[in-house]
Amino acid sequence: MNYELDAFLTIVISVIVLFIGHFFVKNITILKKYNIPEPVVGGLVAAVVTYILFMLFNITVSFDAKIQQIFMLMFFTSVGLSASLLKLKEGGKALILFLICVIIFVLLQNIVGISLAKVLGLDPLIGLIVGSVTLTGGHGTAGAWGSVFEQNHGIHGAIVLGMASATFGLVIGGMMGGPMAKFLIRRYQLAEEIAPSAQRVEAPPADETAPFEYPENTRLITADDAVKTMGMFAFCICFAYFMADFAQGKWFELPTFVWALACGVVLRNILEHGFKVEMFDRCIDVFGNASLALFLSMALMSLQLWLLADLAGPLLLILLVQTLILALYLYFVTFRVMGRSYDAAVLCAGQCGVNLGATPTAIANIQAVTNTYGPSHKAFLIIPLTGAFFVDIVNAVVIQFTISLFS
C-alpha cells in the first residue's frame, strides 16, 4: 500500500523532521560531539521509520518530489545569486588549489570505481556509476545519466543502482564530514570548542561574509526586499526549467540545478555591476539557508533504504572503498595542500559533501563544524562556488569523456 503526500504535507513533515534532528543533536552527546548536521539526523530517523513500515507492513510513503526539487533549485539559485565576482576574486589562490584537489579526486573516484568493477567481473560502466556519476554528482546527476546508461549502453537497472549509490553517498557524506574535521582539528590542535554562550555571534556586514556563513544570526528583512528577492529566485528557476528542456539530448545538456545556479551568477553580476542595483544579500542568505535545511530533510526522509539493502556485495564493496579512499585523500592531500590550518580542516569536511554526497551536505557539514569551533570565512567562500558550480561542469565533462572510452 502506497500513501502519496502532497506538497503541503511534505513541507509539514520535513519541518517536523528538522525539529527531531535538532532534538537528537542537542540531547545525544555523540551526535553533537562529531558535528552531525541536524537535517541529516532527522532525515535518517524518518528514513528508518519508512523502512520499518515497508518491511513490516508493506507500506510505502511517497513525498512530493516537485516541492523537493523546488527547494533544491532555490538553494542552488541562492548560491548563484551570492556569487559576486568580487567574492570570486577574494577566493583567489585558495579557491584554485581546492578546485584542483576536487578535480583530481573526481578522476581518482572513477579510476577506483572502474578498476574495482573490472576486478569483480562487472561492466566498467557500472564502476563509473558507482564513481563520480553518483558520489560527486548526487541524485540529480544519477537520474539524468541513469537513463543514458540504460537506453544507450544496456546497463539494466542503472537508475535504481544510481539512486542507491547516491543515497549511500548522501548519508556517508553527511556522517563523515564532521568527524573528519574534528579528527584533524584535535590531532593538530587547530582550534578549541567555543562555549555555547559564544556560539551566536553577531555577523559582520554582508559585504564581508560569504553565503551561509552565519545561519543562526538574525537578519533584518523588509517585505519589499523579500518580494524582489523572490522575483529573482522565480526568474532563475523558470530559466533553469526552460534550459533543461531546450538542452535535452544536446551536447550542452546539464542538470536543472546547474542552469539555476548559472542564471543566478549572471543575473546577480549584471544587476550589481551593470545596472548598479543593490543586492539583498541578507534576504538571499535567509532563503538559501531555509531551502538548504528543508531540501536535506526532504531528500533524506524520502530515501528508500531497502534499495541499499538490495545492493549486491561487489557494489557495496566499491562504495566502501570509495569512502576509505576519500578519507585518505583528505588527510594526505587536501588538508596539506590547503595549508594544514583550521580552514583546511573545515574545507575537508566540505569536500566530504562535494565528493561523497551533495553540495547541500557540504554546506551543512561546514556549518556544523563552525558552530562548534568558530567561523571559517574561507570555507564558506570556497565550498559553495566549488561544489555547486565548478565541480558539476568538470564532472559532466569527465563522465562524457569516460563513456566515450568504453563505447
From TrEMBL:
This is Sodium/glutamate symporter. Belongs to the glutamate:Na(+) symporter (ESS) (TC 2.A.27) family. It comes from the Bacteria. The chain crosses the membrane at residues 7-25, 40-63, 70-88, 94-113, 125-148, 154-177, 226-244, 256-271, 283-306, 312-332, 379-403. Signal peptide: none annotated. Its main location: membrane. The keyword Nucleotidyltransferase does not apply. GO terms for molecular function: glutamate:sodium symporter activity. It is found in: Cell inner membrane. Catalyzes the sodium-dependent transport of glutamate. The keyword ATP-binding does not apply.
